[in-house]
Design a protein that fits this description.
Elements lengths: L3 H32 L1 H6 L3 H6 L1 H18 L5 H14 L5 H17 L3 H22 L6 E13 L2 E8 L12 E7 L5 E7 L8 E6 L3 H9 L5 E5 L14 E6 L3 H13 L6 E7 L8 H10 L3 E7 L26 E5 L2 H13 L4 E5 L10
Parallel strand pairs: 7-8, 7-10, 8-9, 10-11
Antiparallel strand pairs: 1-2, 1-6, 2-5, 3-4, 3-6
Helix pairs in contact: 1-4, 1-6, 1-7, 5-7, 6-7, 9-10
């Protein structure tokens, strides 16, 4: 917890810092990349930097952590999520000192705060950093060269890759986790992106990639069977939990990838649990794993699928046309719900789930987690 004096100063300055936190985040990244351009080239997502989403996510996490400290709580879920992202891209403990220097420099530059206030926010930072370092220490780390042993065209813009390590056993994984994949682009940058594991296999890893940005385009166009990619250990804390209660899987677009892996795990185990899978997409042709969804649901004793298309091709039920709505879906209030998709989808589904009485809700989002940024 914060020291009493620091807590007093942070509470007094939180509104000002919160109002300026996006400017502080932008200034932080400008300072960081000016001194360490290799981080932008080889670690940080250049697209997220360009559109500002990474700055928004950083701002939201700092504000949420500071608010939690003032309330006498640590936001454990947020910390675990950040820690898993960090180990998947190779963040090291020593880099926290570099981040501290540039973050405090950005706060001073944007707000011109007194030294005592800067010291209080430094305490906030190190409490957060030490928490993350402690979590990251116990997570699987490292990257391995993997060979592409198969690839499948799921839709016009989604490809599934099946990869196997060049040396050693296949890393252990859980349904719902993701891997970081690093590729060398034409300009020499070694960019990293996370992709969800999208199925169950014992002797390889399977992940699916939607064409959306420079790394995914490289994987689609320049990664044939037989080529190699650098892949991290599987990471992510939104995984299928054991139990006997109902399972609710809610996805939109490419967000179906981690949830189809959960469904495959349930089917492989002949699970007797009640399973309700809900998916939303543009139309039938853009829906990845459409046939697999139907096949897996058919294998389970108590499962059903509800699919919504915004612009369906041909005849399609009117009550399943448009955006996903849960009012016509049998939602067990005691279900464990797993969500994956764009942030607006996550917000809409969470609100509808709470209205239906579901409170055990877990979500995964691709890219920076902007839910914390409001």
């Amino acid at each position: 917890m914060l020291s009493p004096r620091s807590a007093e100063l942070v509470e007094a300055t939180l509104p000002a810092v919160g109002a300026a936190i996006c400017d502080i985040s932008r200034m932080f990244y400008e300072r960081l990349f000016a001194e360490h351009p290799i981080l932008l080239r080889d670690m940080f997502n250049r697209g997220n930097q360009a559109n500002g989403t990474q700055s928004q996510a950083l701002a939201g996490s700092i504000a949420a952590f500071a608010s939690g400290l003032l309330a006498g709580q640590r936001p454990e879920t947020m910390l675990r999520r950040i820690a898993h992202k960090h180990v998947s891209v190779g963040v090291t403990p020593g880099q926290y000192a570099v981040v501290h220097r540039h973050l405090l420099g950005a706060i001073a530059e944007v707000l011109d705060v007194p030294a005592e206030v800067a010291a209080a926010w430094s305490e906030v930072y190190w409490l957060m950093a030490d928490s993350l370092i402690g979590i990251e220490r116990f997570l699987p780390q490292g990257q391995q060269e993997h060979r592409v042993i198969a690839r499948f065209q799921e839709t016009d813009d989604v490809v599934t890759f099946v990869v196997r390590p060049l040396d050693g056993p296949v890393p252990r994984s859980k349904p719902g986790q993701y891997v970081s994949v690093q590729v060398q682009l034409a300009d020499g940058a070694r960019q990293i992106r996370q992709y969800s594991l999208s199925g169950r296999t014992d002797d390889a890893l399977r992940f699916s990639v939607k064409r959306d940005g420079e790394v995914s385009a490289h994987l689609h166009d320049r990664t044939p069977v037989g080529s190699t990619v650098l892949v991290s250990q599987p990471a992510g804390d939104v995984t299928l939990q054991p139990g006997a209660g109902p399972v609710l899987l809610l996805s939109a677009g490419i967000g179906c990838t981690p949830l189809i892996a959960m469904l495959a795990e349930l089917a492989a185990a002949d699970s007797p649990r009640r399973v309700v899978a809900v998916h939303g997409d543009r139309d039938q042709l853009s829906h990845p794993f459409r046939a697999e969804l139907a096949q897996l649901v058919a294998k389970l004793a108590d499962a059903q699928a509800h699919v919504f298309y915004e612009r369906p091709i041909g005849d399609w039920p009117a009550d399943r046309t448009g955006l996903v709505r849960l009012d016509g879906v049998p939602v067990p209030p005691d279900a464990t719900a797993y969500l994956c998709g764009p942030v607006p989808f996550l917000r809409a589904m969470r609100a509808q789930l709470l209205e239906a009485g579901v409170t055990d809700i877990h979500y995964e989002v691709f890219g920076p987690d902007l839910r914390l940024a409001g």
